[in-house]
Structures are given as structure tokens and as C-alpha cells.
Amino acid sequence: MVKQERAVRTRETLIRSAAEVFGREGFARASLTAISSLAGVSSGALHFHFESKAALADVVEAEALARLLAVTRTEPPAGASHVQLLVDITHRLAYELRSDVVLRTGFTLGSELSRPARTGLREHWRGWVEKELERAEAHGELRTEVAAQDVVTTVVAATVGLEGLGVRDAMWLSAATVSRLWRLLLPAVAPAALLADLQAGGTRPR
Amino acid sequence: MVKQERAVRTRETLIRSAAEVFGREGFARASLTAISSLAGVSSGALHFHFESKAALADVVEAEALARLLAVTRTEPPAGASHVQLLVDITHRLAYELRSDVVLRTGFTLGSELSRPARTGLREHWRGWVEKELERAEAHGELRTEVAAQDVVTTVVAATVGLEGLGVRDAMWLSAATVSRLWRLLLPAVAPAALLADLQAGGTRPR
């Protein structure tokens, strides 16, 4: 039992170390030696858990997707609008991208040209934004003059842009930056009657 | 003279081939053999022009920057607003990103983790958007309720997002997608009096 716990912990450490090295060097240049050395385990131990660098990257991406799902599965506070939930989750995602190297690297791995294209984190994020905006529209939370698909395109493009820019400069993932985005977008998206209740800075204290 | 012309042409072919291979494989995995073979020249000829893969990537990025400068240097049509120029240039950039592999790869090379961070194409684009929106503000083309910095953040994030998403799916760089973005943003950005003259689909036929 103790041995099993240690194996689980070693595996977690390896995933985190892999995310750090992939995130710093990129997938193609990252070496398994650098990863095992950062994790403080032998290369034999690394190969016991992961058969190849590609397998390790797949696991980092899967673990990052699980964390993204945990972010997007957040329940809205009672009575909160879908638009406010979208604002809150965008803030939460930016915060997690700043602080969680596994989540951050999961996004960059998905767009690395040296790995095969697959349904990655961006695609999941796009799907979630779309579904949430469909709900907002069904609840009369979008201005009638606005096409929901225009909002989906703009929100997905802008948030993926913040994620990409944030790789090199975390300022793009700050709460101030996310608030700037929503300060401009909310009046374009939500009817005037709802605007007073919507907060571009989000409603969840962290 | 003929010999010199041939050398210039070979160099151009090598840059284009390098952009294609970097764009498909990523910098770290791209091989000089694949590049010279795609260009139809010997590896000796490649080494005559470029001393290393890093030097070749630097030249691709510099050539892409020159092309981006050609896009952003476009003069506005007489009487056109700065906001309309921004819309038009965004459309032009998306079009060029779809059709010009050197420009497209110049953007992705700048965000590849396996290369050192430097002032790349995104940074130039950000600076140009900022300057153009400052001019728009000075000419009363932004709504007074709107902070120019909110517009800069949103436009830069959204356009960089389209560029990044467009690497894997060119639909994100279509004129329809860019128009969706501006259809939502223009009423948030420009005063009501100017809106009738602004065209989200751009004013330049291609």
C-alpha cells in the first residue's frame, strides 16, 4: 500500500516535471533526461511509468484536459446569468493558466506543430463557450441585435489569444487584462437591462 | 549577372521551402535535408546560403516581418477613418496569413518554445494596433465611454487568437470569421454617428 502510494506520487511528479520541461523547451526539444532529473527520479523509474516521450506528452495533455473540465464544470451561483458565468469562468481559466503549469502546457502541447493534430484543450474550450452562449441566448441574455455566433467567434478568438500571448508574458492572463476584455464586450453582448448586474471583473473571490 | 539572378532565386526558393517545412513540422523537428529537397537544391547549395537551421529560421522571420510591415503600411483611402483602416488591415492580414506561408510561419516561429523569445511579429502587430487606436481616439472615432486600452487588449487578443487557431483550421482566417468579429466589436468601439459608415466586412475588394 505504501509502495503503491509512492508510485502514484512519483507518477504525479513526473507529469508535473514533464509539463515544466515541455512548457520551457517545447515538445520536440524536451529530453526525457531533463524530465527525470527535474523530477528527481532515475530514468529507469521514468520508463517504468511512461514508455516514450510521446506517451508522456499525451498524459500531460489528458491531465490538463481533466483540469480544464474541472474549471468549466463549475456550477453557477444561484440566480447568476449564463453571461456572468462565462465571465467568471474566463477569469478562473486565466488564473489557472497563470498558476498551473500542467494546464498551461496542455494548451501549448495541443498547438505544437511537432505533434499530430487532435481534439485538444482549445477545441473543448470552444465547445463549452458555444454551449454556454446558446444557453444565454435561450434565456434572453443576449441583445436581440446580436448574432450568437458572432459572440462565440469573438470570445473564443480573444480568450485563445490571451492564452497564446500569456505563454511569453503572464500580464496577458492577469485579472486586469481579462476585465478589460469584458468591459468592452459586455455592453455589446448583453441587453441594457442586464448590464447593471454584470461584472466584468467577475463575481468569485479567489 | 545571370548567375547572380539565379542565386537570388535559389535563396528565395529556400526561404519559401523552409517556411513550409517549419510550418508543417515545427522548428525543432524540421530537417535541413527536407528543406533542400523541397527546394530542389543540394544541401551544399543550402549551406552556401544559410549557415544553420537557426539562421534560416531567423531569415524566414525577418522576411515575414517585412511582409507584415507591407500590410500595416497600407495607406488609408482618402477620407477613411482609422477604425475602418483597422478593420481593413485585419481582413488583409487574415487573407495574407491564409495565402502566404512565409508570413504564416513567421508568426508561429515567433511563438515556438524551442527558439529564444524575441521581438516578433505579434509584438509588431500589437504596436501597430495600439498606434492606430490612439489615432482613432485622437480623431474622436472611439466612443467616449470606452477606454482605448480596453479596445487595444481586445483587438490584439482576438486577432492573435484567430492567427493561432488558423494554423490548424484556415476557417478561422476567413473573411466571414473576421467580419463576425467586427460586427460585434464595431458598435462597442465607435460612436453611433460613425457606425453607418463602418463596414465590418472591410472596404477593399481583393
From TrEMBL, chains A, B:
Transmembrane segments: none annotated. Pfam families: TetR_N (PF00440). InterPro entries: ArpA-like (IPR047923), DNA-bd_HTH_TetR-type_CS (IPR023772), Homeodomain-like_sf (IPR009057), HTH-type_TetR-like_transc_reg (IPR050109), HTH_TetR (IPR001647), Tet_transcr_reg_TetR-rel_C_sf (IPR036271). Residues 8-68 form the HTH tetR-type domain. The keyword DNA-binding applies. This is HTH tetR-type domain-containing protein. PROSITE patterns: HTH_TETR_1, HTH_TETR_2. SUPFAM superfamilies: Homeodomain-like, Tetracyclin repressor-like, C-terminal domain. Residues 31-50 bind DNA. Keywords: DNA-binding, Transcription, Transcription regulation.
